[in-house]
Structures are given as C-alpha cells and as structure tokens.
Write a structure and sequence with these properties.
Chain lengths: 298, 274
C-alpha cells in the first residue's frame, strides 16, 4: 500500500534550536494517527512542514505523492489549525463559501457542510459573534471540503464540549473509512487512545515512541500497582508474605513488573481469608506518555 | 485561476462593506469634491477657463492627498491583519497562489476606490455643468483625472500591501503607512522646495528637480494632470515646473508606478513566512 504521507529523517532548526530532529514516519490511507507531545515538542512545526508552510532543513517528505506545499499536495490536503481563526466580519457561510471556491467546489454545498458540524442555525451570523467551539467547527467544516486524502488536524477537539467531541470522532471514522489518512495532535490521551489506530510521541523534536496503545504499553513495561485491603488483624501476615508491600492509610500497596503480575496474584490468592479486597491498577495512559516523553531526561 | 481570484474579490468586498470602508471612502471623496467645487468657483471669470477645468485643477491637488490616504488605509491591514488574526497559515494551505490572493485583494480595493473617485468627481462635474453648461469642455480633463487617480490609488495600494507584508503587525503597518504618506505626499515637496530655494537656479533646479518630481508617484500624478490640461496657470505650487517636463515622461511615471509597487508587494508577500 502506498502511504499518503511519508517522512524520512526530517530535521528543522530555528536559530540554532532543533525543533525537529531526524523524524521519520508514515501515515497510510484510512489510518488515524495521533501525534502526542507536550507544548514545544515540535507537533505544530511538524504539521507546518507537512503543509509546506515551513521548509525543512533536511529530510524527505512525500505528501500524496508530491512535495509538500506544491499544488498537487495542496489540492488533496486539508488543515485545521490550532485555535482556528477567521475574519470576524464574515459570516460562517461566507467563510466556508470562500474556501469552497478556492478548492473549486460548488459553494451551494456550504450550508450542508455547516449543518454537518452543527452550525446550520448560526451560518448567517458573523463569526465575530461565535464562541471558541463554534469557530473550531467552522475550522472543521472547511477541513471537510472536497474529500481530502490527508487531514492534518492540530488539536481539533480543543474548545469542543464532550458531545461535540464524540460527534467529531464519528466524523473522523467516516472519513477514514472512505480512505482518508488522518494525522491529529492532541493532549487528550483518553480520547485518542480509543479513537485512533496508532500513536506517535514527540519529545524535544524527536520521535520517541510509535505504535498502537497495547504496543506502547508493552514497550513501556511500567510496573503494575496492586492495592490490598487486609481482613482486620491480618495486615502483618500479608506483609510478611509479600515483603515488597508498604502500608499506607490502612491499606497495603505493592508494585510489580508486568511479567511478574500473575505470580504475584498467585501469591496473594494463597492468602485467601486474610485479604478482604484487592485492586490491580495498570499503568495509566498518562504514566505511559510521561515514560516516553521524559526518556531523554526532560 | 480566475475562480480563485474572484473568490478573494467577493470575500474582500464583503469585508470592506461590513467595515464601512466603501461608505467612508465614498463620503470622503464626495464631501471634499463638493467643498472644492464651491470654493473653486470664484476664480473662473478672471481666468477665462470653464468652470469644470478650474475644478479639475483643484481636484488634482485634493486627490494627491486623499487618494493615497484612502488607498493606504484600505491596504495596510491586508497582510498584517491576516498574520495577526492567524488566518494566513490556513489560507496558504489552500490550492491558491499568493499572487492570486493579492490580486483578489487589489481588485476589490481598486473597485472601491473607483466607486469613491467616480462618486466624488461625478458630483463635482454635475454641479459644474449645472451651473455653467460650457463646462462640458472640461470633461476630457476630468476623465484623465479619473483614470490617473485610479492608477495613483493602485500604486499606493501596492505600497500598502508591501508595508503590510514587511511589518507583519497591523499597528506597525499602520504607522509605516502614515509615515510613508507624510513623506511622499507632504514632506517630499517641502524638501524639494527648500532645495530649489537654496539652489537658486543652479544644477539642482535644472537637472535633479525634474527627475525628483517624476520619481514620486504623487508628484508625477499632479504633473501629468496639470501639464495635460494646461491648467498650470490656475494651479499654485509646482505649476511652473510642469511646463519644463514633457507630458510623456509624467505619463510613463504614473503608468510604471503601479506595476513597480505591486511587483514589490508581491515579492514582499512571498517572503512572509506564516
């Protein structure tokens, strides 16, 4: 399968500071890929390079089979900037109509597009009167114009309420099912875990991890936490049987590596009668994310 | 290409209409033209020229100030505003060339200038002809003034876009635009005048001064209209200099300036990194 987006060994420096360093990645048709990283990790820079707004210092990029920013690529790539902004004097309908004309699409479809993102009622009001979430939807509407092959979405759900977020990801699912490749950046880890096929973690301009959530979970190999509530009076017995456990607020806590999890549970189950309750807490998404994004000592 | 330029024209016209730019430009031009028509009617009898020709001479002096000002006011925000609002990066990811965006803005802004100029000069012409039917003979001069004013406006639109691209901030672009307007339209003439007085008929007056007038789009515009209508006698200021510079030279200047300024604007816009 030919990738919609292929990047190899991309490097970009701003005044001596490496914003992107040796980044390689690919996004295939129909694939939803999330780009994670803290502020300043290089997410927006990477997106601007993909869009041809910034020229890279070195590296090869192929967008829909062409160079980024060239007419062929721009015809097939849609972009939603972080904090999408528009001219406040225009109405939502006028703004989307303008973008449709630039893409040589029939502007008669502008109203349908606005209805698709839930802005039908506000279409003829000036964007100056819109809330942040409504402006974000205008941004989303323009990104849907003309069935793009690649969607580059910079924090698309910021400013959207939970219901709108769900609608948004349903829209993305439809687009991906139709063959569009999607690259989106986000801070909302729980969202992207459930709604994307693959995660990329950028840290300090480097791609530090790549894969599906189960892949990353396995690679991170973070310890599992186990909380045990002892039956009254048996806490000392349990601590004797499990030397790693520590006592805190009346409960016992212990951690073990992923591959020791079953052994540990087997040992706990032998203490039947002394254990009142047990919780197994896998490493959270935040833990896994922090693990990768801080690996370089940041 | 045409579709994309027209799309920008429509959008920019909508924005200008909402921001009241059309109304402001038309009101400014009509108001000042009417004031000049009323004030400029006095010397008619003494000079033996028809009423409209006299008004055209006055309108020329007015337009030298007003047309560049209106053009700069409309254009200073064109690029800097997009950068500041954050709308430029998204626009540039669309399949549209930067020059197409600029051409769309230029066409929309020029159209507004044309409406304002025609309304202003038209009002003056109607009043002049109503008061003195012989004024019809001045219509040629008025027509010349009209199209040369549009060229002058286009020149300053280009200058405004270039400043807007260089400044990248609306406030900075506004300051640059006003500074440039003062320099080219007001201070330039004062400087030349001082130099001519100091030179007292020497090489500066005979060699440098004519080229200096042609090098400034506002002066070339004034020179062209005064030379062409031979109404130098009724105009004050640089009138005497007009006689020594052939018409074709000032014509070349007013034709070349819009091309040069828009070329610079396109180059400046191209170097803007979103």
């Amino acid at each position: 399968m030919t990738s919609t987006l292929t990047i190899s060994r991309l490097t970009k420096t701003f005044g001596g500071v490496r914003a992107l360093s040796d980044v390689s990645l690919r996004v295939n048709p129909g694939e939803r890929v999330a780009l994670l990283g803290h502020n300043g990790a290089g997410k927006s820079t990477l997106m601007k390079v993909i869009l041809g707004l910034i020229a890279p210092d070195s590296g090869d990029i192929s967008v829909c089979g062409g160079a980024p920013g060239k007419a062929q690529a721009r015809d097939r790539v849609a972009y939603l900037p972080e904090n999408a902004a528009f001219h406040s004097a225009l109405t939502g309908l006028e703004q989307v109509t303008y973008y449709m004309r630039l893409r040589r699409e029939n502007p008669a479809g502008a109203m349908d597009l606005l209805a698709r993102v839930g802005l039908a009622d506000a279409a003829k009001r000036r964007i100056g009167t819109y809330s942040k979430g409504m402006r974000q939807r205008v941004g989303l509407a323009q990104a849907l114009i003309g069935h793009p092959s690649l969607l580059v979405l910079d924090e698309p759900t910021s400013g959207l309420d939970p219901v709108s977020r769900r609608d948004f990801y349903e829209l993305l699912d439809t687009l991906a099912a139709e063959g569009a490749a999607i690259l989106l950046s986000s801070h909302a880890l729980t969202e992207v875990e459930a709604r994307t096929d693959r995660l990329l973690i950028l840290s300090g301009g480097k791609l530090v991890a790549e894969g599906s959530m189960p892949d990353l979970r396995r690679d991170a190999d973070l310890p599992v936490a186990i909380n045990i509530n002892a039956v009254n009076g048996y806490a000392s017995d349990i601590m004797a049987a499990l030397p790693n456990a520590i006592r805190h607020n009346g409960a016992l806590h212990l951690t073990c590596a992923q591959d020791e999890k079953l052994d540990t549970l087997a040992r706990i189950s032998k203490l039947q009668g002394k254990v009142a309750d047990i919780d197994v807490v896998p490493p959270s998404l935040e833990d896994i994310y922090s693990h990768f994004s801080r690996r370089d000592g940041q | 290409m045409i579709t994309r330029i027209l799309a920008t024209v429509i959008t920019e016209t909508n924005i200008a209409r909402r921001n009241q730019w059309v109304l402001i430009a038309v009101l400014l031009m009509v108001l000042f033209s009417l004031v000049l028509s009323a004030a400029g009617s006095a010397p008619t009898g003494a000079l033996g020229a028809d009423r409209l020709s006299v008004i055209v001479a006055s309108l020329t002096s007015l337009s030298v100030y007003l047309v560049p000002l209106v053009a700069l006011l409309m254009s200073f925000d064109a690029v800097a505003g997009e950068v500041e609002r954050g709308t430029l990066p998204l626009l540039l990811t669309y399949p549209v060339a930067r020059w197409e965006v600029l051409a769309g803005k230029l066409l929309a802004h020029t159209a507004i200038l044309v409406i304002a100029i025609v309304a202003g000069y038209g009002a003056a012409a109607v009043i002049a002809i109503a008061a003195d039917p012989a004024s019809v003979s001045g219509l040629g001069a008025l027509w010349r003034l009209t199209w040369s004013s549009v060229l002058l406006g286009a020149t300053f639109l280009g200058i405004g876009y270039a400043l807007s691209s260089l400044a990248r901030r609306s406030s900075g672009a506004a300051g640059l635009a006003i500074g440039l307007w003062l320099a080219l339209v007001v201070l330039y003439d004062l400087g030349l005048l001082a130099a001519v007085v100091a030179d007292n008929g020497g090489t500066f007056t005979t060699r440098v001064f004519p080229s200096a007038l042609l090098a400034n789009p506002a002066d070339a515009f004034r020179l062209f209209n005064l030379t062409a209508s031979q109404s130098a006698s009724v105009a004050a200021g640089i009138g005497s200099a007009a006689a020594s510079i052939p018409l074709w030279q000032s014509l070349c200047s007013i034709l070349l300036w819009p091309i040069a300024s828009l070329g610079v604007a396109a180059l400046a816009f191209r170097s803007v990194e979103p």
